[in-house]
Amino acid sequence: MAEFAAVFLRSRDDPDIERLLVRIRKGSELERQQALAALTARAQGRGDPHDWNALGIGLHECGDHQRAAEVFRMLVEHDPRADVFRLNLAMAFSQLEQIQLCRLELQHVAEHGSTEELRRVGRAQLEGYERFLGLTDEDRRLAELQLHALREVTEGSGASADDVAALARLLLRRERLEPTADGFAEAVEALEHGTERFPDHAPLLELLIACYLRSDPQKRLTAAIERLQRVDPHSEALRVMRDLGDESAREFSRALDAQASRLFSTALSPDADEPTRGAALDELERLVSFYPEAHHRRLQYAFALAASGQRAEALEQAAQLAATPDDSHEFHFNLGQIFWLCDDDASGRHHLNEAFRFAANDQEREDVEERIAYLEAGE
């Protein structure tokens, strides 16, 4: 049975590079930064793809998986036949949990690798990755059987708190891998009912709080945290939230925004092939589904759908956004264009007019007028 491990491959033996990578893995924070700076200077100064590959590995070792992915993506674009770089790009995607993009790159090596050995590595990694995530047909059948059994158990009077937690975890795991409209909602509903039946069960409250941190339209997060403080003041979840702080939360949100912007660019890039654009769009959908109240990311997703010709899907997203109270110029400016691109001129004009109304200065008002004139000229 194939197993998966995120292994990054050297493209050339070089003792100097290996010494720097060892310092990154085992050195102090200062030594790590110095070694990474040395790898960066070497790659930028010499322009050798092997040095850039080493820099990507160093970035991964430092935990900067997004920048590592950017380095490996640049290398693959420069030389699409370089299977080692493509395998490393897949590994970076796996660390970012960009599942479809990882599978796509592994599939490419498995089918088109330059040697039988590399094709074998691609096949083994792809099989191991899908089994690790539970995406094989056998895994899916087993998960459906488990869901069916847990639903029956939790609907009965003999259910335990652990049964409810198991159902919620399974639903959340499935939703993380393959977003659905009802998986997350079903998990939240099960946890809310579960915490009513078992009000002193801290693990259920912790799971519910984790869900509310993702999406809390009813503003129930604060009350759930207060309940957990009474039930288990030493909860690990409470400690983590205290330690993270507001700045860490903002940094995490900025990282998600950067990831969404890169996926948006890839989904619309004329330089990317159709499978890559489709995989990027799938990952953007997954990100939006995971954090449904981040409306600016849903705008990006809707725009990408519209630009990709998937107008019915774009309109569905736009309708959700239109139902969201927002008095910002940028929100209505972008939403109006989405409606217009999907041939709903009336809604498009309405939101562009709203963008004009909420404009903060003459430049923003002029932008709206120019956009309306441009869209009307294209009719």
3D structure, described in words:
The chain is an all-alpha fold. Helix content is about 80%, strand content about 0%. It has 19 helices and no strands. The longest helix has about 35 residues, at about 235-270. The model has no long low-confidence stretch (mean pLDDT about 90).
Short description:
It contains 19 helices and no strands. It is mostly helical.
**CATH fold field value of the largest domain:** Serine Threonine Protein Phosphatase 5, Tetratricopeptide repeat
Total count of helical runs of at least 4 residues: 19
Number of strands: 0
Distance between the termini: 57 Å
Shape: globular
Sequence-ordered SSE layout with sheet pairings:
Blueprint lengths: L14 H12 L2 H18 L2 H13 L3 H14 L4 H13 L3 H14 L3 H18 L3 H19 L5 H17 L5 H15 L4 H13 L6 H11 L4 H33 L5 H17 L4 H13 L3 H12 L6 H13 L3 H13 L4 H16 L2
Helix pairs in contact: 1-2, 1-3, 2-3, 3-4, 4-5, 5-6, 6-7, 6-14, 8-9, 9-10, 10-11, 11-12, 13-14, 13-15, 14-15, 15-16, 15-17, 16-17, 17-18, 17-19, 18-19
